[in-house]
Amino acid sequence: MSDTIESILQEERLFNPPTEFSERAYVRSGREYEQLYSRAASNPEKFWGELAEQELHWFKKWDRVLDWQPPFAQWFVGGQLNISHNCLDRHLHSWRRNKAAIIWEGEPGDSRVITYGELHREVCQFANALKSLGVQKGDRVAIYLPMIPEAAIAMLACARIGAPHSVVFGGFSAEALRDRLVDAEAKLVITADGGFRKDKAIALKQEVDKALEHGAPSVENVIVVQRTKADVTMTAGRDYWWHELKPQQSAHCPAEPMDSEDMLFILYTSGSTGKPKGVVHTTGGYNLYTHMTTKWIFDLKDTDVYWCTADVGWITGHSYIVYGPLSNGATTVMYEGVPRPSNPGCFWDVIEKYGVNIFYTAPTAIRAFIRMGEAIPNARDLSSLRLLGTVGEPINPEAWMWYHRVIGGGKCPIVDTWWQTETGGIMLTPLPGAIPTKPGSCTRPFPGIVADIVDLDGNPVESGQGGFLVIKQPWPSMIRDVYGDTDRFRFTYWEHIQPKEGQYLYFAGDGARRDADGYFWVMGRVDDVINVSGHRLGTMEIESALVSHPLVAEAAVVGRPDELTGEAIFAFVSLEGNTEANEDLKKELVKHVTAEIGAIARPAEIRFTDVLPKTRSGKIMRRLLRSLASGQEISGDTSTLEDRTVLDKLREG
Ligand code: PRX
């Protein structure tokens, strides 16, 4: 990365929202933002209660807006609603019935436009298909699909009948899928024969078969969408084709009234220790918060074509491709492909083809576009764009400037949105018509979010100083639990920072600072989580994958800075006995990790070593490994190191 931390800290450029943007925005000025913010802060229950009433449909009104028994929050207690109803049925009584809900573009160039009326019909039929296989309210359903409309249809159908979904990113391997199926005790899996990615057909059903062979006893049925027409093995009585099962079903399926706190979905994410955590989100608060953030942050209007390039396998896809946009009655674009050698400009083609107005992507994609050269986007008409967004990792100011100039034509505000799987929705962000932006800063908290930067005792640090990013008050879409592991929920998020008076602070795992204008600058993870291309990976997860190889005795994984992906995976590996360390074994280990987790966990570099640097109590000193991996001099205290000669050996590598 060309920008050093120092240059980020000295960033002083300020971009005011263009007047023509502010004039028609939902939130039009800094003053309006301040008013909203203080209204929410002074009486959060009134603020959220009024919005819930105005913006969502409820089958039954709540008795209490918030019940906060730290760290357990319940929002809209006693209220009943259904997010699928809010995303579909309520739009059918207006002109939106015939409006495009989803514009989908497949990688090979096929496409579909699905109106709200059609989407409602598809969702109802598929919901009945799930019921026909015995899926009931409360049963968990896994979704392992490529970026095709059926992914959104499946999610909405699960929500409609009250079966929590667990979407597993299609890039995860059979092993990773199996772990998630077992943890969630999924009853049914929805998959496809495959999907198209980088001009290749990727097999998915085959991975499901492998996962089930290795043991996921809770799974009773598999529904398979035909996408690539690859040969697949269908097990009689267990596996059903989507296109055979769904058309037989009635298109009448009333949405199940759900309690506001009924579980909507589980989504697995990496932590600093052990296996991935099943982050639990519930219905009412999540529906409201993703609805409001989508509306105000993306300034979403009925005439907009909105496109978020994430995959539905991540929280960004859940909140800002499916639920937030559809709850607002917006047109949301879904694209199956990614930029690839045969079409590096495919994103700009999609923008030109559909006249996309709002475009939301990741810094790693922007850095890849910079490398490819601006001639590619310059050859397309991007004049429809009016707002840009980024998410997933800190954006370096120069990438921000390029995005602003080349893609936004210097006229589009950029919303740099900081949030997490656990927060459910965007927490720190500019409101594009109201808040001047600074390249590299996610600026200010969304109304209702009380964020701070503190030390380990929970004391706020001075402006300009680094510290831990925390959230001090509950918010509607906050994580409710780690599925099946409430102790882990408490320990990970609520016990790391220990304020004196027993106050509970949500700890996000990120380091940040705040400047003199109150703007937040997120610096990255402060735990053992690596952020590769905006994807979170736990170092322990990769280490366990490595040591599950019979020739590996021990492994330590760290992140090292990478110009393109933000961070890259660097693994130090010591081998069993007299195993010969060679290039072939490195390749084999890379393949092994890919099979255990998926291609996103592929180590960029493996260094064989006899020993790892450890403290006298046997703890691996990752700080030293991080310095070594990034080619820096080792600084700081090394006196706790058990054997000082280890460092020289590691340097020689
Ligand atoms: O480190 C932060 C980084 O991504 C982490 C959350 O990852 P995940 O749960 O996978 O969700 C990604 C999409 C919401 C955070 O703890 N992160 C996310 N957005 C930003 C960011 N870091 C800096 N700036 C951002 N805008």
UniProtKB/TrEMBL annotation:
Residue sites binding ATP per the record: 392-394, 416-421, 510, 525, 536
GO MF, any single term: acetate-CoA ligase activity
Residues the record lists as binding Mg(2+): 547, 549, 552
Domain Acetyl-coenzyme A synthetase N-terminal: 33-87
CC cofactor: Mg(2+)
Record PROSITE patterns: AMP_BINDING (PS00455)
Residue ranges annotated for the AMP-binding enzyme C-terminal domain, each copy included: 541-619
InterPro entries: Ac_CoA_lig, ACAS_N, AMP-bd_C, AMP-bd_C_sf, AMP-binding_CS, AMP-dep_synth/lig_dom, ANL_N_sf
Modified sites of kind N6-acetyllysine: 619
Keyword annotations from UniProtKB, A to Z: Acetylation, ATP-binding, Ligase, Magnesium, Metal-binding, Nucleotide-binding
Main enzyme class: ligase
PTM annotation: Acetylated. Deacetylation by the SIR2-homolog deacetylase activates the enzyme.
Signal peptide span: none
EC number: 6.2.1.1
Binding, CoA: 197-200, 316, 533
Catalytic reaction list: acetate + ATP + CoA = acetyl-CoA + AMP + diphosphate
Domain of life: Bacteria
Sequence ranges assigned to domain AMP-dependent synthetase/ligase in this UniProt record: 96-475
Family: Belongs to the ATP-dependent AMP-binding enzyme family.
HAMAP family in the cross-refs: Ac_CoA_synth (MF_01123)
Function: Catalyzes the conversion of acetate into acetyl-CoA (AcCoA), an essential intermediate at the junction of anabolic and catabolic pathways. AcsA undergoes a two-step reaction. In the first half reaction, AcsA combines acetate with ATP to form acetyl-adenylate (AcAMP) intermediate. In the second half reaction, it can then transfer the acetyl group from AcAMP to the sulfhydryl group of CoA, forming the product AcCoA.
PANTHER family linked to this entry: ACETYL-COENZYME A SYNTHETASE (PTHR24095), ACETYL-COENZYME A SYNTHETASE 1 (PTHR24095:SF14)
Annotated protein name in UniProt: Acetyl-coenzyme A synthetase
The gene coding this protein: acs
